UniProtKB/TrEMBL annotation:
<dbReference type="Pfam" id="PF01408">
    <property type="entry name" value="GFO_IDH_MocA"/>
</dbReference>
<dbReference type="InterPro" id="IPR000683">
    <property type="entry name" value="Gfo/Idh/MocA-like_OxRdtase_N"/>
</dbReference>
<dbReference type="InterPro" id="IPR036291">
    <property type="entry name" value="NAD(P)-bd_dom_sf"/>
</dbReference>
<dbReference type="GO" id="GO:0000166">
    <property type="term" value="F:nucleotide binding"/>
</dbReference>
<feature type="domain" description="Gfo/Idh/MocA-like oxidoreductase N-terminal">
    <location>
        <begin position="2"/>
        <end position="123"/>
    </location>
</feature>
<dbReference type="InterPro" id="IPR051450">
    <property type="entry name" value="Gfo/Idh/MocA_Oxidoreductases"/>
</dbReference>
<protein>
    <recommendedName>
        <fullName>Gfo/Idh/MocA-like oxidoreductase N-terminal domain-containing protein</fullName>
    </recommendedName>
</protein>
<feature type="region of interest" description="Disordered">
    <location>
        <begin position="341"/>
        <end position="361"/>
    </location>
</feature>
C-alpha cells in the first residue's frame, strides 16, 4: 500500500480525494492537514482517526512512513509545499492550477527536474471517455481544427455563503480562466499537440460585488492554424449546458457535456453518440498516480502540462487587461521572464480510459 498524506481539507478534497483514497486498494491515508482545525478534525474522523495537523511542515516532519502527498490547496499556497515535498523525495499529486504565475510554475518545473520527482497534476477531467473519444477522432477531422469549449460552472447562489467565498477567493487570487480554463487547455492539448502562437481574451465582471471577472471569452491560436475558443461562465444565476464542438475540413462533432449526447459527421456519414457526461474520474486519476509511483515518474498530467496550461491562461489574463493579442514572446517580455515560455503539448499516445472507444460504439 502507498502511504499518503492529504494536505488541504476543502471542497475538492471532501468530494474527490478523501473518498477515493479511503476506497482505494492502492493507497492508505496516513495523516491529514488543514489550517482550519475543524476541517482537519472532520477528515480525521471520517478516516478513522488518522493523525491531524494544522501545519503541513509539522506533518512532513513527523510522518516518516509517507510515500506520497496529495495537495488540495489553493494555487497561491501550494508551490512552497510542493518544493518541500519533492525535496523529501515523496511523490506528489497536486491540484490544478499548479500556481498563480508562470514564474511559480517554472519554479515547480525546476524542482521536479532537480529532484527527479514523481509529480502529477490533478487534471482529473482528462480521463473522461469523451476526451479519449475526441482524441481518437480528431485526426479524421483534418487540419486546421476549430475547437469551441463552453464551460458553465459554480452557479451563483447568494444563500451559499461558503461557496461564494471560495469562488471569490479563487477570482481574487487568480482567475476563473486559470482555475477552470487550465482543465480545458489540458484536455484540448490531447487532441491538438501544436504549440500556441497567440491569445486574445475578453473578461467580464457581471456584478460589482464579485472580486474580479467571472465570464471569459478567450481565443487561442496554434502554429498549425487551429483555433480554440474557450468561454468560461462562473457565478451566473442560471447555467447553460457546457458544450464542445470540434470542426475540421473533413468533419465535425459536437458534444453536450451535461447530457453526454453528441453528434458526429465525418467521411460523408453522420451518427449520434452517447458517452458518460463530463465528470471527474477520481479512480482513474489515482490509478494513474499509483502507476507513476511504481514507475518512478509521472508521464500523464505532468509538470510540463501544468506549466503549459499556466502560460496560456496567463496570456489570457494579460490579453484581457491589456486589450492586446499576446504571443509567447510578448508574454515572456511582460512577465520579465527569460527564455522561451512556449512548452509544446506532449503527445500522449496511451490513455487510462477504455481503449478504442471509437470502434467500440
Ligand atoms: N480537479 C478538479 O476538478 C478541482 C475541482 C475543484 C477544485 N479544484 C482545485 O483545487 C484547489 C482547492 O480547491 P477547493 O475547492 O478544495 O478549495 P477550498 O478553499 O474549499 O479548500 C482549500 C483548503 O485548503 C486549506 N488551506 C489553505 N491554506 C492552507 C495551508 N497553508 N495549509 C493547510 N491547509 C490550507 C483551506 O483551509 C481549505 O480547507 C483549487 O486550486 C481548485 O481550483 C480542482
Amino acid at each position: 500500500m502507498i502511504s499518503v498524506g492529504l494536505i488541504g481539507c476543502g471542497e475538492v478534497a471532501e468530494s474527490g480525494h478523501l473518498p477515493t483514497i479511503l476506497q482505494s486498494d492502492r493507497f492508505q491515508l496516513a495523516a491529514i492537514c488543514d489550517v482550519d482545525p475543524a476541517r482537519a478534525k472532520l477528515f480525521s474522523d471520517r478516516a478513522g482517526g488518522v493523525p491531524q495537523y494544522s501545519d503541513w511542515r509539522e506533518l512532513l516532519a513527523r510522518e516518516h512512513s509517507l510515500d506520497a502527498v496529495v495537495l488540495a490547496l489553493p494555487p497561491e499556497i501550494s508551490p512552497d509545499v510542493v518544493v518541500e515535498v519533492l525535496r523529501l523525495n515523496l511523490a506528489v499529486l497536486d491540484e490544478k492550477p499548479i500556481a498563480v504565475s508562470v514564474a511559480e510554475g517554472r519554479r515547480l518545473l525546476q524542482a521536479v527536474e532537480e529532484h527527479r520527482g514523481v509529480y502529477q497534476i490533478g487534471f482529473v477531467l482528462r480521463y473522461g471517455d469523451w476526451v479519449e473519444y475526441i482524441r481518437q477522432l480528431a485526426p479524421s477531422l483534418g487540419l486546421p481544427l476549430q475547437i469551441n469549449v463552453e464551460v458553465y460552472d459554480e452557479r451563483y447562489n447568494p444563500d451559499d455563503a461558503l461557496h461564494l467565498a471560495r469562488i471569490q477567493s479563487f477570482i481574487r487570487n487568480s482567475s476563473a480562466m486559470t482555475h477552470e480554463g487550465s482543465h480545458v487547455i489540458d484536455y484540448v492539448s490531447l487532441w491538438n499537440h501544436s504549440p500556441w502562437r497567440s491569445v486574445s481574451a475578453v473578461a467580464q465582471q457581471t456584478s460589482p460585488s464579485f472580486s474580479g471577472p467571472n465570464v471569459w471569452n478567450s481565443r487561442i491560436e496554434f502554429d498549425d492554424q487551429s483555433t480554440l475558443d474557450v468561454k468560461i461562465g462562473w457565478l451566473l444565476p442560471e447555467l447553460p449546458p457546457s458544450t464542445i464542438t470540434v470542426n475540421g475540413p473533413e468533419g465535425r462533432l459536437d458534444f453536450n457535456c451535461v447530457t453526454g449526447v453528441g453528434h458526429l459527421e465525418v467521411g460523408g456519414g453522420e451518427q449520434a453518440f452517447a458517452l458518460p457526461p463530463l465528470a471527474p474520474h477520481w479512480e482513474r486519476q489515482y490509478r494513474t498516480f499509483a502507476d507513476a509511483i511504481d514507475r518512478g515518474s509521472a508521464d500523464l498530467a505532468t509538470v510540463s502540462d501544468g506549466v503549459r496550461a499556466l502560460e496560456v491562461t496567463a496570456a489570457c489574463e494579460l490579453s484581457a487587461t491589456s486589450g492586446l493579442a499576446v504571443t509567447p514572446g510578448s508574454l515572456a517580455a511582460a512577465l520579465g521572464l527569460t527564455g522561451n515560455v512556449q512548452r509544446p503539448a506532449r503527445h500522449t499516445p496511451r490513455s487510462t480510459g477504455p481503449e478504442r472507444i471509437v470502434e467500440a460504439r
